[in-house]
Structure formats: structure tokens, C-alpha cells
Amino acid sequence: MIEFKNVGLVYPNGTEGLKNINVKINDGEFVVIVGLSGAGKSTFIRSINRLVTPTSGSLLVDNEDILKFKGKNLRKLRTKVGMIFQNYNLVKRTNVFKNVLAGRLGHTGTLRSIFNLYSKEDKALAYNNLNRVNIAEKLYNRADELSGGQQQRVSIARVLTQKPKYILADEPVASLDPPTSHQVMTYLKKINKEDNITTIVNLHFIDMAMEYADRIIGMRAGEVVFDGPVSEVTEKTFEEIYGRSIREDDLRGGAQE
Amino acid sequence: MTTKNTLAQKTMPLYPAKTKIQVTIIFFVVLGIYTYSMIKTQEDMVGGFGGALGNMYTVIEKFFPPNFAILPAIWDSMMQTIQMAIIATTIAAILTVPLAVLSAQNITTFKPLYYLTRTLLNLLRTIPDLVLAVIFVGLFGIGVFPGILALTVFSLGILAKLISETIESVDMNPLEAMRASGGNVFQVIWYSLVPQIAPQFTSLVLYVFEINIRASVVLGMVGAGGVGLILNQQLKFYNYPNAMTVIIVIFATVLIIEYVSNKLREALL
Ligand SMILES: Nc1ncnc2c1ncn2[C@@H]1O[C@H](COP(=O)(O)OP(=O)(O)OP(=O)(O)O)[C@@H](O)[C@H]1O
Ligand SMILES: [Mg+2]
Q1: Does chain A have fewer CB atoms within 10 Å around its N or its C terminus?
Q2: B191–A105: do the CB atoms touch at under 8 Å?
Q3: How far apart are CA A51 and CA B111, in angstroms?
Q4: What is the pTM of this model?
């Protein structure tokens, strides 16, 4: 369980990224965060694995206040909370297999990882996860030889290999075309259901949020302005979150079926 | 509206007027310095360019024909020069890694440490290689060892600077991903930084090796071992045909090494 209690974050330059956030995310939920650019979606998500550190309040992950974490504790938190990025963030010159095995870093000793001494189980796990996202045939290709959608699938395999309890995804489909976007979201949803991994995704496409989310959190100017199950969400809700009427480019389109 | 736009396009200069004036002034100042120093150098030369050409003939006559009989004797010290360069480059390449990482702003976010290593490396680079050699020869006596030390320190300065700049230009995204998956500093560096800089690293090390070969000849002349020492001795005894052979051997070696290393670097990048 993830619990934000009066969480605030002020960046060093004075920008208020988060303002008094109170949110509770239960295990197994698939939450989509929506909001305009600059609303604080990334700040929210990156607080959970402490890529940024809130400056007030407390943030509980499995009942521990992670805002106090340092060094070893912090790395342990990060092995539990996997992350997927808009730009896939693979090591481009390294092959797919090694990129996926990097998901084990947090579980592997420094020397073992430097000499690539991964256990048979780790390698099998990495390979299986590549299979789960249907990209195992690219095992020994360099990451930069893959298309965007393929790279994002590799990054999903990497995060799975980490065996996380939570997955954070910051705009995972923003650089992809509509069909590929749906493919990637479908994998994320499937993993969420099959492995019961709590998943929090930032999206700015309304139709995709509606299609995949169990619950939607709306943000504006660092504040949570809506929080509820997807069944309660209408076009009006989005207009309130965005503070303007809905436009063509708020929709990704190309929905399957 | 449209007419206004086209008007703006016509009259708007690409750079502000102030920048234009500044650049023009700098250009003429530099041009002035060039002209002045060219005239001055001409004045200082005894007999001007004509005299220099005449001297050239006398010099060439003294150096030719080269005495190839001493080739076997030179061979050993040429090898010594190459070995000096190899050892110094290797040591420098190893020592560079921590220094380059510590002086890269994107990796060493702890500012005092970054400024400390930066300053240290800048200081190191201000010492000319010849001065280093003189100091080390003074400390350890004539021979290969002070030469290796001087070359190591000298190439460390260049290499660490160039590589820290390479590090500063890497894609930070994979580093963030490794950090987010719970990797520690060493794992993050090894998995996401090293693969990104490995080709440039090798290429720069080869480049510094080329520089070291040439530098070690010069260092030899102040007593730091290798073929430079022989060249210096022959010149001192006015044994120009011997000296000429040394020069030809150095020339050929440098050419071969540069060719090979260029080919290697082309293959890498
Ligand atoms: N490192 C930073 N330093 C200072 N201000 C920042 C920093 N990162 C983000 N901000 C500011 O914090 C606010 C929230 O940014 P955030 O990146 O969380 O928005 P976002 O909702 O993810 O937007 P987008 O959809 O464009 O990614 C913005 O006003 C942004 O300018
Ligand atoms: Mg963002």
C-alpha cells in the first residue's frame, strides 16, 4: 500500500511541485494519473521511488515512511518499486538480454554484477519475461536496433525481472503511435492483473485513461483535484481537471475493438 | 498581419547589433596582432627568409647522407621509447577513470569534490611535459623511469579532461533507470555509463599514445631515456649523419604507429 499524507514538494527554485497531497493506493490497483503538462504528474510518481524527495508530509510504502530512507534502505525500496520511462531508458549500445538482466542489479552484489555472474534462475527469469512481452527473439540485438514499441517492451521485461511489488510508468506511450500505445498499455494491464502488481501510470490521453484505469487521479497545479473509480468519470470530470474543454489532441485514438 | 510579419523578417538581423560590433572589433584586433608579429619575426631573423634558405642548404649538406650503419644500435632505444609510451599510457588510462568520473559534473553531484578534482587536473595540465621531465630526471636521475613518470602525469592531464567531457555528454536516461531499479553507484556506472563511453575512451587512449610517442622523444633529450637521449648525444658531438638516421627512424615509427592507431580508431567509432 502507498499512502501520501499531507505530502508537499518545493523544488530548489521555488516551484511547488506537489501541494498537500493525500492519496491512498491499495495493492493491486491500476491507477492512471491525468493532468495538463506541468500539473505535477511526474513529480507525484517520482516521489514514490524517491527520484525526487518531497519536502513535507510523509509518504508510506508498506507502512514505512520512505522520506527518511537513505543508502541501502533507498536501494531496497527501489528494487520493490519498478519504473518505466517515456524514453525507454535502455542502454542503447548494450544487447537486449543484458539490458533486461540489469533489472536484477538491486538484488545482485556489486562484484557479481560487474563480472556478469548472474544465476541460472536470474537468466531464466529475464528470458521468460522477454517471452511474456513477445520479444525474446531479439535477445542478442543491440537495444538501439529496436523500434520504439519494441524498446518499451524490453523495458517492461526489465522491470518485471526486478520482481517489483509496484510499477510506476511515467508517460510510457507518449513517444509511440496509437496501435503500439495500446499494445504497451495492454501488456501493463495484463501484468497488473496476472501478477497483482500495483501499477501507477501517467497519461495525458483521456481515452486511454478511461480504457485501462481502475481508478483515475486528476492533478492540476500540484494538487489532486479528482480521485475516483473510472466508473464515476465523465467528459465533464476531465474538463474540470484540465480547466478547459476537451480537444482532439487529448485523445490518442486507435482503440482496439 | 501578414504584411507586418514579412516586414519583420526583412528588417530583423540574425544577431543583435551589439554582438556584431563586438565580433568585428575582436576580428580586427586579432588580425592586427598577426600582422605585427609577422613583421617582428622577419626583423629578428638574420638575413630574413633568403638567409634561412641559404642556411638550409648548409644544414642539409651536413646531415646527408645518413649513416645507416648505426641502425642496430638505435633499435634498442627506439623500442625503449615505445615501451615508455605504452607503460605511461596504460597507467594514465587506469588512473584517468576515477579522476574523469570525479570531474564530470553530471556524475559527481557533490560540488566540492567536483571542483577539487577539476582544479587539480587544471593545475596538472598547466605544467609542460618538458618541465615534468626535468623535475623527475632531477629527482630520479637519468633513465627511463623519470621519463615514464613525466609521460604518465602529462597524459593523465589530457586524458582525464577529454574523458570527463565525454562523460558529461552521455545520455543520462539509462543511468536514471539503473538508479531507479536499485543499483548502487558502481553498478550504475558499470552498466549504463561504461558502455556509452567505451568507444571514445579507447579512441582517446590511442590518441594520447600517439602523442606520448612523440613526447617521449623530446623528453629523452633532457635525459629521460629512450631514443631522444641518443639523438641528443649525436647532435652534441656534431655527428649529424648519425643524428639523421635517428630522425628517420623516429619519423618512420611515428608514421606507422599513427597509421595503425588511426585505423583502429576508425574501426571503433
Ligand atoms: N527539477 C525541477 N526543478 C524545478 N522545477 C521543476 C523540476 N521538475 C519539475 N518542475 C516543475 O514542477 C512542476 C510539475 O512538473 P512535473 O514534471 O511533475 O509535471 P508533469 O505533470 O509531469 O508535466 P508533463 O506532462 O509535462 O510531464 C512544473 O511546474 C515544473 O516546471
Ligand atoms: Mg511528466
Answers
A1: C
A2: yes
A3: 19
A4: 0.80
